[in-house]
């Protein structure tokens, strides 16, 4: 059922008294499960599929996870599990944002194709099985035991590190001189995800980062292949598409929620960037 207000957003605090939750899905003796409703989370979700084949939708892209692989879902991404074939076994680690180190956060957020499953080696599989199994045992044990939270955090950090290592592309020695540019690009992308509803111009982001608009644009374009304005528009249009598909808000209401007082300007921008008007997009993708 679609909402007239917003896309359902789930909080980890509703299910777990700490900052992590561990779930194991075993479809060995089951057929295809019923699809879960589309939603977004305030937290990270790291998925480790030991074997099998499953289907998940992330921001309008249907993803097939085949055999042993890992996948990350970022806070705010609209997603839903569609189906898992028989003999599929997968682990799900839900993590509060505060439990994700900034270094690892950047790895997941800035991965070239963040939504793609990452195939893993037999060694990776074994390490993840050992680490996640230990994490689950501590998670389900008595929370009153000495150093329980410390152990839980340490094992969680180890699991995150194994996921991040699979996502992280090797850094060539000659690239280290561009570390400052990488940091600026990462800071811009992080700020954009937080402020795209209120900050619409490259100059606003440059001012927030204490650099010139020209320098920010040069750095971001060199790192990503696209200028700052492209990424601002992409973030806005992605959220607009989510709202058009998953809610029944009017175009005028969506424009207002995205920070546009003039909904006609928003409609022109959306049409220019997608080739469809907001109404046409909703009609096409809801069929």
TrEMBL record:
UniProt-listed Gene3D superfamilies: Homeodomain-like
Species of provenance: Paraflavitalea soli
Pfam families: HTH_18 (PF12833)
Keywords, comma-separated and alphabetical: DNA-binding, Transcription, Transcription regulation
InterPro entries in alphabetical order: Homeodomain-like_sf, HTH-like, HTH_AraC, Tscrpt_reg_AraC-type_HTH
Domain HTH araC/xylS-type: 186-284
Domain of life of the native organism: Bacteria
Molecular-function GO terms, alphabetical: DNA-binding transcription factor activity; sequence-specific DNA binding
The name this protein goes by in its record: AraC family transcriptional regulator
């Amino acid at each position: 059922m679609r909402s007239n207000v917003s896309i359902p957003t789930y909080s980890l605090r509703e299910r777990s008294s700490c900052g992590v939750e561990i779930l194991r899905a075993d479809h060995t003796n089951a057929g295809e499960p019923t699809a879960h409703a589309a939603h977004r989370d305030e937290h990270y979700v790291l998925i480790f599929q030991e074997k099998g084949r499953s289907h998940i939708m992330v921001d309008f892209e249907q993803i097939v996870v085949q055999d042993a692989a890992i996948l990350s879902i970022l806070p705010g991404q609209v997603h839903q599990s569609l189906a898992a074939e028989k003999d599929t076994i997968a682990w799900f680690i839900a993590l509060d944002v505060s439990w994700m180190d900034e270094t690892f956060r950047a790895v997941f957020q800035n991965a070239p194709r963040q939504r793609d499953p990452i195939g893993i080696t037999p060694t990776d599989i074994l390490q993840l099985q050992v680490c996640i199994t230990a994490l689950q045992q501590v998670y389900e044990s008595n929370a009153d035991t000495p150093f329980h939270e410390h152990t839980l955090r340490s094992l969680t950090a180890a699991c995150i590190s194994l996921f991040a290592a699979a996502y992280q592309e090797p850094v060539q020695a000659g690239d280290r001189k561009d570390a400052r540019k990488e940091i600026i690009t990462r800071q811009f992308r992080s700020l954009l995800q937080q402020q795209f509803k209120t900050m619409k111009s490259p100059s606003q982001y440059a001012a927030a980062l204490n650099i010139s608009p020209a320098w920010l644009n040069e750095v971001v374009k060199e790192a990503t292949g696209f200028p700052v304005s492209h990424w601002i528009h992409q973030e806005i249009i992605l959220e607009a598409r989510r709202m058009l598909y998953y809610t029944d808000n009017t175009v005028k209401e969506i424009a207002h929620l995205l920070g546009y007082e003039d909904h006609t300007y928003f409609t022109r921008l959306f049409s220019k960037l997608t080739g469809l008007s907001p109404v046409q997009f909703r009609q096409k993708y809801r069929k």
